[in-house]
Amino acid sequence: MLYREDTEIMGFEISGHAESDEYGRDIVCASVSVLAQTAVNALGELTGIDFEYEVAEGYLRCLVPKKLPSDEKQKVATIMKTIYVGYESVAESYPDYVNIRVRRCDDYDD
What is the Cα–Cα distance from 77 to 59, expressed in whole angstroms? Predict the structure, then answer.
């Protein structure tokens, strides 16, 4: 699930397991997980923003504030667009295991 505000991606949520192979050999699940963790790590290291994230077994949710200074907004946009391109590639290669849904940011509180 991607959270959008106008054209900007402001967060994402992944849940479940792809189950495209046995545990430890599931490259689809690993790919999606690595993309999500990369986004969280990049937001933490490359921006100066406080953002919300939650991690549990088979679940990761990351939300950035809707109101950001313009310099930080550009960094966040670059990170989020990059991750989205990665998700699209995985979903295109493994459509039976990955789907991408988009919701407006109105669906979460800032």
Answer: 22
Tell which wins on pLDDT, 12 or 105: 12
Instruction: Give the chain's domains with CATH numbers.
Output: 2-107 (3.30.70.1490)
Q: DSSP letters along the chain, please? A: -EEEETTEEEEEEEES---SSSTT--HHHHHHHHHHHHHHHHHHHH-----EEEEETTEEEEE--SS--HHHHHHHHHHHHHHHHHHHHHHHH-TTT----EEEGGGS--
What pTM does this model have?
A: 0.85
Output the average pLDDT for the chain: 88
